[in-house]
Design brief:
This protein has helices at about 20-25, 45-50, 65-70, 75-80, 95-105, 120-130, 145-150, 180-190, 195-200, 205-210, 220-230, 250-265; strands spanning about 10-15, 35, 40, 55-65, 85-90, 110-115, 135-145, 160, 165-175, 235. By secondary structure, the protein is an alpha/beta fold. The chain has a single domain, classed as Spore Coat Polysaccharide Biosynthesis Protein SpsA, Chain A, CATH 3.90.550. The protein is globular. Helix 5 (about 95-105) packs antiparallel against helix 8. It contains twelve helices and ten strands. Helices cover about 40% and strands about 20% of the residues. It starts with 7 loop residues before the first strand and ends in a 5-residue tail after the last helix. Pfam families: NTP_transf_3. GO terms for molecular function: nucleotidyltransferase activity. InterPro entries: MobA-like_NTP_Trfase, Nucleotide-diphossugar_trans.
């Protein structure tokens, strides 16, 4: 990591969608982010990774009900830590971030990730901060060959470009107020976040056609989007394959627990 890297504010997205979450219901907890994963509440591992990293100055947890975390013995430490602030989360991620930028004056730069990013590690944060530093917008992605080489049974949502098939790693860098327009577009397509082509199309016909005809690399496409919007937009191609494995489905939790168990074993065993 660069020695001059700015100290960022981390945003941990811990909200929940309306209705009953089947994962939370099966685990007997009120919200998904309190589900025990490898013996610890899901939110705890990414929160601790963020707070332990030298690039992170403080942590803002966005959630609809902060009391759930303060009242749960497994997560009460979050409410007690002076570096942690809870703020209300709206119905969508993008809208909540815009509200934060417009209403409270976001403390840029922001490093945004999700509370189900259980495998978030210091190595991931080292790479991401080093490569995102100075950008207006940086997006972490993992190329399919890298993931499948280690976890061939893992299922992700992929976008195909000239430089490979890519899946999101749920880590974003928002370097300054110029990212607001990009987040506003994200808000428009948020309901279709699993439909990659609608997201690409929102940034204009040139980018869409380039992606469909595979004329653009993902790196080149992001740079072009950035130039069109008057900002520096970058891809951070994550080296750890685990960066795009989040706890979204029961199979994901099984895989995450297997990875955590393997990493906890003494070397040589």
């Amino acid at each position: 990591m660069k020695n001059a890297a700015p100290r960022a504010t981390a945003i941990l997205l811990a909200g929940h969608r309306p209705g009953v979450d089947p994962l939370a219901q099966a685990a007997g907890v009120p919200v998904k982010t309190l589900i025990p994963v490898a013996g610890d509440a899901m939110i705890n591992r990414p929160a601790r990774a963020l707070l332990a990293h030298p690039a992170i100055d403080r942590l803002i947890v966005l959630t609809q009900d902060a009391a759930l975390f303060a009242d749960d013995p497994a997560t009460a430490w979050l409410a007690a830590d002076p570096r942690v602030m809870f703020l209300p989360s709206g119905a969508g991620i993008a809208g909540t971030l815009i509200d934060l930028i417009d209403g409270r004056g976001a403390p840029f730069p922001l490093l945004v990730t999700t509370a189900d990013h259980v495998l978030l590690s210091a190595a991931m944060l080292d790479q991401f901060v080093a490569e995102a530093d100075g950008a207006d917008l940086a997006i972490a992605m993992v190329e399919r060959a890298r993931l499948l080489a280690r976890y061939p049974d893992s299922r992700r949502t992929w976008l195909k470009f000239r430089d490979g098939w890519w899946s999101g790693a749920n880590i974003f860098w928002l370097g300054g107020a110029r990212v607001r327009d990009a987040i506003a577009i994200w808000r428009e397509v948020e309901q279709d976040r699993k439909k990659g082509w609608k997201i690409i199309a929102a940034f204009g016909p040139v980018v869409l056609i380039g992606a469909v005809l595979r004329l653009l690399s993902l790196r080149g496409g992001l740079r072009r989007i950035g130039r069109r919007m008057g900002m520096d937009a970058r891809l951070v191609a994550m080296e750890p394959a685990e960066a795009c494995i989040d706890a979204d489905k029961p199979a994901d939790i099984v895989l995450i627990e297997r990875i955590l168990a393997a990493s906890a074993r003494p070397s040589g065993r």
